[in-house]
Amino acid sequence: MQLIPRHDPYLVVRSTDGVTVAALRGELDLVLVRHLRPELDALVRESDALTVDIRRLTFCDATGLGLLAHCAGCTHRRGTRWRLLCDQPWILRLIRLSGLGELLRPEVAPPDGPAAQPDSAFPPFPVVPAPSVGPGWSGPGAAGRVP
Fold first, then answer.
1. Do residues 80 and 49 touch, judged by C-beta distance below 8 A?
2. Tally of CB atoms within 10 A around 125
3. Most buried by CB count within 10 Å: which residue of 15, 31, 64, 99?
4. 3-state class of 136 per DSSP?
């Protein structure tokens, strides 16, 4: 398998014999979608078969699902093969609740062995301390908190 050179901590791409595996990592939100969309669009156009491995995502919102649906739709329209590897129950539930299950067709485990080794493909993330949460916190999860 050939590693396509790039210095992106959120995307590792391997390609061989027309089969491309794109392994994503991090938080698939508006910021990361804007960063990844051009690269994923290019992979969709150039690949005979595209596997997107999202087993190492730590977050995915509607924008992230929209990007995955866009890639799957373009892949299907081109008549190429699409696979989505996902083993996280919360993302699988989000896919089901959004009605995208038939388009995305997530696979919990690849039938022919691991399509990507995300643990070895990605360099380790730097450890960043979480923000302290104290009185007056208005960040994520603050709704419904009593100051």
1. yes
2. 12
3. 64
4. coil
Measured between alpha carbons, how far is 31 from 59 in angstroms, rounded to an integer? Answer: 12
Instruction: Please choose, from the candidates 123, 124, 115, the residue with its C-alpha nearest in 3D space to the C-alpha of residue 14.
Output: 115
User: pLDDT tens track of the chain, all 147 residues?
Assistant: 344 445 578 999 998 887 899 999 999 999 999 999 999 999 999 999 999 999 999 999 999 999 999 999 999 999 999 999 999 999 999 999 999 999 999 998 665 654 444 444 544 444 334 444 445 544 444 444 333
DSSP readout, 30-74? HHHHHHHHHHHHHHHHH-SEEEEEEEEEEEE-HHHHHHHHHHHHH
- Distance CA(45)–CA(92), nearest Å, equals 26
Order of all β-strands in the sheet with 2-3: 2-3, 11-16, 19-28, 49-60, 81-85, 106-107
Q: Give the CA distances from residue 100 to residues 1, 16, 22, 59, 69, in Å, rounded to whole numbers and listed in that order.
A: 30, 28, 20, 17, 7
Encoded tokens for 71:
């890639």
Phi–psi pair at 55, nearest 5 degrees? -65, -15
